[in-house]
Amino acid sequence: MLIDKDPRFPYYSYDVLFHFYTAIARWAGNNPGRTRRVTLAHGASSSPTTNMQTPQIGMHLHSDWKAFAGGLGFIVLAFALAAAPLTWVLAALIGAILGVAILIQPALGLIALAFIIPFGRELSFPSGSIGATDALVAFVLAGWLARGLAARRLTVDRTPLLMPLAVFLWFGALSLIQATSWRQGVLEWLKWAEFAALYLVAAQTLQRRHVWWVLIALLMAATFEVALGASQFTRQVGPEAFNLLGRFMRAYGTLQQPNPYAGYLGYLMPVALSLAIGTLTAWWTSGKTSSLLLGLLLGVVALLLLVGIGLSWSRGAWMGAVVAILVVIAGRSRRAMLTAGTIVLALCVIVLLLGPSRLPSAVSERVAAFSGYLVGPDPATSEITDQNFSVLERLAHWEAGIRMFNSAPWLGIGIGNYGVAYPRFALPHWYEPLGHAHNLYINFLAETGVLGTLSFLVLWASVAALLYRTARVQEPFLKSLALGLLGTVAYLTVHNLFDNVFVQHLQLQLALLLGALVALRAESVCLSK
User: Is the CA virtual torsion 487, 117, 196, 203 positive or negative?
Assistant: First the structure.
């Protein structure tokens, strides 16, 4: 049957158009059977002979073109995936799945991020400036913003530490007016902006069940790094410069250097230790077998992390670990504080009675080298040997950093610009820059001046004060986490005297843990009301 023809279309009938449209609609996956009596687009009213089911041409045409374009896009995507390397295809698929999951639940992104932090260098993009870790942080932030805007609820005003973080970021940005390289400066500033954003998202997103998964992901990755470091240590896998005693190799994991490797483990060792002590204390009072097993497992993890720090052969990490353990133990109670003090005093007496010569020669030489930082030999004139090389190298970089600070005391030479400016301030014989001053505080003085350094110290003191206040609560898990993080802050404070362990995204661990603590703190306050 033919539909009445429009005089403006003398050569075509509507039955041809109908069958053509039906074929396209079926190919695109639409159902042309869902039709009804319509008024034709050109204005001719349908007659009784046109009461047959006809498609809504005007209404469906736009959606059909969208379906056609979508189908064509999928075909193009399929060919692109077929031509791409398999690793790229897998990465794209995993990224797409993870991206959708993060948009649905940003906490999943935080858990994934907790695991991949030490593998950032292995997962970096070809450009090198941005890696998978940065991309995941961006995904998490986008997911959090999308959910907040959809729910019309973005609460940030009551989150602790936001003001000192904002002031620190402001002075860091202000120092860029002194920068020689804006690219290096902006990248370093973005590192701290990323820290602040991740802390905020974690504080607003995580719940108690999420916090446990974040901790599991962090400790699983750290345990893997210890196993890898132990293999490198015993099998002598690594560059010649890491050779130790002719039989071993300094552990460095996936972080390429022993000091960042030790720093990475140092972020988590005090947390694992504190959670182990807290869980075993809960078992002692309740008698639950599950608490005993969990406490023993956490204790083993803490011991493994401590062994990994030892295998790094990093003196700053050793000293930081000792201080962190004392803080975690002493923070439990006055009795624990007296016990920790007694242990330290007894160890000091034993060392004095036995003498350093009774220690293994490699360990005694490593510890004795600390005196080099105190007496301060001149790195420009001292004879360089294998034994004093690392000490003189650090002293040379400290001196260069102080010279940078003297040249621009208020705002420094620009955040992230230590390595760029180093050749102008280098001492004789020490012309190769290491990227930072090997002392966080001198590095901040050099790059951000007095204003930036003071803002960082205020932020650091605010973090310690928040942790100290939280450690006084009665809720066992929250108390243990706060004490563990207080140990982490003590560790970082000491280790950063000899290095900079806010590198390779390691600081994101602290952002995650602080955000988790604040989230638990807010949840505990709500439950108590």
Answer: negative
CB 477 within 8 Å of CB 234: no
Helical residues (DSSP H) of 382-506, grouped into ranges: 389-407, 418-425, 440-470, 476-495
For 228-268, give the DSSP string. Answer: HHHHHHHHT-S-GGGEETTTEE---TTSSSHHHHHHHHHHH
* Torsions phi, psi for 494 (to 5 deg): -80, -50
From CA 131, how far away is CA 151, in angstroms rounded? 31
How many Å apart are CA 212 and CA 268, to the nearest integer? 14
Average pLDDT along the chain:
83
CA 70, 72, 75 angle in degrees (round to 5)? 110
Is the pTM of the predicted complex or chain greater than 0.70? yes
How many whole angstroms separate alpha carbon 479 and alpha carbon 491?
18
* Distance separating the N- and C-terminal Cα atoms of the chain: 76
Closest CA to 329 of 318, 316, 344: 344
Q: What is the pLDDT of residue 340?
A: 75
Among 118, 216, 218, residue whose Cα is nearest residue 503: 118
Where is 319: in which H helix or E strand? helix 315-330
Q: And the tokens for 110?
A: 């935080």
pLDDT digits (tens, 9 = 90+) for 431-447: 999 899 999 999 999 99
Q: Estimate the share of the chain in helix, then strand, then coil, as percent rounded to the nearest 5.
A: 70, 0, 30
pLDDT-based confidence at 40, cuts 50/70/90?
A: very low
